[in-house]
Amino acid sequence: MSDRDYLPLSATLVKTLTDKLYEKRKAAALEIEKMVRELIAVQNYEQIERICKILSEHFVLSQNGNFRRGGLIGIAALAIACGREAQRFKSYLVPPVLQCFLDNDPKVRYYACESLYNIAKVLRTITLSYFNEIFDCLSKLVCDLEPTVKSGAELCDRLLKDIVIETCTQFEVIAFIPLLRERIYVRNAFTRQFIVSWVSLLTSVPEFDMVQYLPEIMDGLFHILGDPNPEIRKSCEILFSEFLTILKTSQVQPDMFEDMTRILIQNSQSSDDLIQYTALHWLREFLNMPKCHQVLLPHSAGLLSAVLPCFSYEDDNRQNILFTFVDFVFFLFFIFTAKEINLILRQLIKNESTKKSNESNAIHNLPDMTITKMVEVLKTQIQSGASPSRIIALGWVHHLFECLQDQMASHIDVLFPTLFRVLSDPSDESPTSVTTAYSPPLLRKKGSKQQHQYTTEAVLLVLQVFALISTSNRTNTDRNYNDYFTKFIIVLMDLFRTDRSLLEARGSFIIRQLCMLLSPEDIYKTLSETLANESDTNFASIMVKILSSILLTSTELHDLRIKLKNLQTIESADLFVCLYKTWCHNPVALVALCFLSQNYDHACTLVQLFAEIEVTVDFLIEIDKLVQLLESPIFTYLRLALLDVENNQTLIRALCGLLMLLPGKTDAFHVLRRRLECVPNFIDKFTSIDKRLANLSINSKEKETINDPRKNINFDELQQYYLSIQNRHIDLKKQRYRYAPTSDVRRNRQTSTRYLDKMTMSAPKSPLPQFVCQVCGNFLQQDSSLETIDDQMTKPIASSTTICDESYNELQQGGSDGTIVIRKTLGRKRFGWSITTSQSSLDSANGFALVPHDVNKDLEQKSMREYRNDINIHEKLYDFLSEQYTFDHPLCQECTDTLLDKLDVDLQMATHELTSYKKLLEQLNSSTNVQPENYEKLKQELIELDEEEKRIKDELLKLEQENQRLQNESEQLKKDEQSLEEEEIRYLRDYNEQKRLLFEAEDEQKSIDNQTKHARAQYEKLSKTNAFNAAFHIWHQEHFGTINGFRLGRLPSINVEWSEINAGLGQAALLLNSLAKRIDLQFIKYKIIPLGSHSYIEDLNERKNGKFVQLPLYTGRRHLTWDNQFNKALIAFLDCVNQFKLAIESKNQRFCLPYKMNEKKKGVITDSNGYQFHVSYQVGSQEEWTKALKYMLTNLKWGLTWITSQLPDDMTTSNAIPTTSSPTVTSPR
Asked: Do 1001 and 1101 belong together in one domain?
């Protein structure tokens, strides 16, 4: 651009404004400020606008960095000069500066901050029209990497906040919120701190009412709350507290609470503890505000999803953390908040249900969609939540069914499978981190106990829910329950059938709790109807056993027992018949039911029918338990009925029958026997038979006259039903044992063995040896027919089989108690035996069997040799059987049955295979029948095949040779490849070495280049530096002229020290002397001697004592008017300055100084207005003396500038000659 394009800015001003030195740019800016002030005075706004346009378009937006820096400082100076009129040019002031905020040069960014600061100080309120742009730029500059830029941005930020607070009525918050909502998600810590500070400021000013915009920025504030910086978290936490305080006292629209609730629910599930707690705390405060209840109820599902996981806080992995006291307190507040939200929300639901029932036309805040969402949340939490959360969720399900039965009816089918899954969950769930295997035993025990408590509570809640479901919305008024009750019982039975562990662990507990929650009669009647059609007779028997045990022992079923005991109504009789048909699956339970209902006659009949069924160990155990129950308080009336011997003969017979079934050495046998021994066994002698018969007839007539519901019970029909059920059990048992897996058989055998061990005390003692079953390992009780076997009968056996040499058993007397020990010395280790069945043991280590004293009597009757012969006879028999079959003998009855079933299956499989082989053999024989005419053809084919085989072998040989050749070539190629690889490695190694040397040479070359560039830059910098400008800096400070910072002059208000004045005069003397030497000037009459603060001037025209008179340029006297020598020195110095001026004018006619010095009037200097000032201190006032010295320094500055312009190019780059139109120092007015 030409110089005309920059008008009214001169070319010199433009050059100075774009100079690299800050001082020059600042001087140019001051010149612009002066120029604009003059234009403002004459109201020439067009020129000002042109200057603004030039500075903004050609300087600030320039690609040159120096232009941008000069333009920024120029715009700031222009704005300061404009003052209040700056608003006319705001479009030229603020936007260009904002564009420089994102400049790549950090200095430009800093000067932009400085410029904006000055502009904003002038514009004040007008700056708010660009607030969003300024805020966006500052939010980026506060995180700048350059510290100076960051500090400049902070200064602008503070000024902008002051402006906003001062003019709060003119600040448009609504226009700022979209930008804030966008920038609030920035992750930089400095930007977040900047945003939080602004939001806090706006919140503190009531006029802004930031609460109404809280929903738009709340989510972003939660993101800032999760910042890792503790200071930012604390600031944001305080901000949330301020907002909450304002919300409690202000009138807020309900829609705002709805929007904030969504955000709070979302953040309440955050992984950050502080965010989660803050969100929950806000939700709790919202719930405590009555005005929010109607808004929060539709969000109940979201509130549940936020609160329910919090109850598992103490069970998750965070328990492994060693809490500090602060963490522990925080944890307590966290749990307390979640519990309080849960309680308040439950109360709101309850109040809503009450309102719904009282006001039929009221508008309700719990629509079906909300209930559906709540059910989904609860279902998810029940399925996958931890134990504490699951308990709370189940409590909510119960609460909803209790308060909102009509609305929850449609969700029963959805919740049914989930609730049943809770019932079937294992009680020992996977342990949490607290109860791991590596935890201390006490802690593990505590965790296990707590988990069991959770499981029990969960089952109770599920049953309570089912009870509410069963009693709600009854369609049939005749029944106490709805269709879901029956469905529940059926599904429960299916669950018990498929999960026997659940039945064993919780079956009794579940049924007892159901009886407490619902009618026991309905429970048992429905269970009986369900089990009556059960196809799995084994499961039915187990269920009947459990139900009978509960019926006879549980206190919850006391009324039901009384009803069954008396049978006074038709309903009770029907109930008995219903239970009877189901109880038929378990004979012992059926007898107990008859005992309970006092049907002793039928009980006796049933006991007699026990002879037709198989008496197993389980059967005997059940009888044992029944006997124990007969001794309990429940059957007190039965024991008292034994006193009436005449009328209860069937009862006594039934008990005697049970006694006959029990093994003689069991505890139950002795208990029942002692009870029957107490029964009176006499009949009154004085009561005749006729009288007794008469009494019996009277009693029978009384029973006939009484309306007894027992008459409606057809016991004969029930007995036939019982027999059919038992026959069905027998048939199914045969099928089950035939195809039962080995584990089931082994389990039954173990059960039998355990019970038989109890009964061994009642087994008859026999001197016969007892052998061990070779499968199950139990001792065998041999049949009495084996006693008749003698040695003659075993001779054919011994002769027909080869028996290994065996040593005989030796009987010897041993032990202090006279016990006879049979030492086993047989070669077959599979045998073992015991002489007695009571308390016998076989020591597998030493092979001894103890024979008790009871056998000693038999041993006296038999000799040792006879016993040895008996043992040998049986051993030979079992050896023979073992040699004949693939399994060892002897075997017990159960193992034999199992073995026979297995052999039957093997036989069937073998028969099937034999049939298949026969068919294949027949097919093969039929296909091999070849006709004679085909022989020649087959021979020819055989010859061709032989030739083909020979040809193929030849080809195979050639291929093998070719393969060998290829293998040799392959090995040679591998060797060549290996050599090439080694050569390549060597080449790469040499290449890397050369590359390294090249890199080192390049690094060294770059280092030399950098050093050269640095030296050249230093040289250029030094070459452009002027020694005079650097050594002598002449400027002004208020009313004083300064040289190198030393002020010249004094004022009444400012008492400048004489040492400072002396130093300044010394610097001026040195400067003038140096300038004179530069132009080879010899002063007339005077010679300047620069000596710092003690410089002086020699008067060459006067001598004293042979020396030139010295005029000191320093003083220190209090009364300066008496110091004539100092005043003369000042006059002489001014005369020297005048001589310097004349010397320059002789070389350049255009040169002139701004202040004239009169040759005639020594020591006088005149300003542009014609006022004269004397440099002598004694002539004028201090103000005039100070101005004279200031003007003298100004003339020296101009002379210095001229000398600088005349220096050669290798010393300076400035060749401009100053003119009077562009002074560098502003003259004081």
From this structure: no
Q: Are 547 and 527 in contact (CB under 8 A)?
A: yes
820 bridge partner residues? 813, 851
Inter-residue contact 561 to 634 (CB < 8 Å): yes
CA distances for 722 relative to 373, 576, 715, angstroms:
52, 14, 10
Split into its structural domains, the chain has a count of 3
Residues 1009 and 1057 in one domain: no
Compute the half-sphere exposure of residue 620: CA atoms within 13 Å on the CB side of its CA.
23
190 dihedral zone (left: phi>0; alpha: psi -120 to 50; beta): alpha
Structure tokens at 2: 């030409």
> How far is 1124 from 625, CA to CA, in rounded Å?
141
Q: Note whether residue 542 is domain-resident.
A: no
Tell me what percent of the chain is helix, strand and coil, each rounded to the nearest 5.
70, 5, 25
Closest CA to 416 of 406, 408, 407, 427: 408
Query: What is the CATH number for 1096?
Result: 1.10.418.40
Omega of the bond leading into 890 within 30 degrees of 0 (cis): yes
Same structural domain, 949 and 1005: yes
* Identity at 290, one-letter amino acid code: P
Is 932 strand, coil or helix? helix
Q: Over 60: is that where the pLDDT of 866 sits?
A: yes
Q: Is there a domain that residue 999 lies in? A: yes
Q: What is the Cα–Cα distance from 580 to 717, expressed in whole angstroms?
A: 11
DSSP 322: -
Nearest to 263 by CA among 247, 249, 280: 280
Distance between CA 194 and CA 229 in Å, rounded?
Answer: 13
Domain limits for position 44: 1-171
Nearest CA to 153 out of 144, 142, 164 is that of: 142
How do 820-823 and 848-851 pair as beta strands? antiparallel
| Three-state secondary structure of 525-568 | HHHHHHHHCCCCHHHHHHHHHHHHHHHHHCHHHHHHHHHHHHCC
Same domain, 1074 and 1017: no
pLDDT digits (tens, 9 = 90+) for 889-911: 777 877 787 778 778 877 888 88
From residue 227, give the alpha-carbon distance in Å to each of 191, 192, 275. 12, 9, 10
Residues 987 and 1079 in one domain: no
Do residues 296 and 257 touch, judged by C-beta distance below 8 A? yes
> Can you tell me whether residue 1089 is helix, strand or coil?
strand
pLDDT tens digits for 359-406?
554 445 677 788 888 888 888 888 887 778 888 888 888 888 888 888
**1194 and 1080 inside one domain:** yes
pLDDT band at 868 (very low <50, low <70, confident <90, very high): low
Find how far residue 549's CA is from the centre of its chain.
Answer: 47
3-state SS class at 1034? strand
Q: Counting Cβ atoms within 10 Å, is residue 829 exposed (0-12), middle (13-18) or buried (19+)?
A: exposed
Q: Cα separations (Å) of 57 from 80, 450, 900? A: 19, 78, 112
Place of tokens 């429960």: 492
Distance CA 1113, CA 1065 (A): 6
- Does residue 475 form part of some domain? no
Q: Of 1025, 1047, 1068, which one is at a domain's C-terminal end?
A: 1025
Whether residue 1042 is found in the same domain as residue 1187: yes
Long-range CB contact pairs, 848-855, < 8 A, 24+: 848/821, 848/822, 848/823, 848/824, 849/821, 849/822, 849/824, 850/819, 850/821, 851/819, 851/820, 851/821, 851/822, 852/819, 853/817, 853/818, 853/819, 854/765, 855/765, 855/767, 855/820
Q: In degrees rounded to 5, what are phi and psi of residue 77?
A: -65, -40
For range 548-574, the mean pLDDT: 89
Nearest partner of 1211 among 1072, 1071, 1028, 1043, judged by Cα: 1028
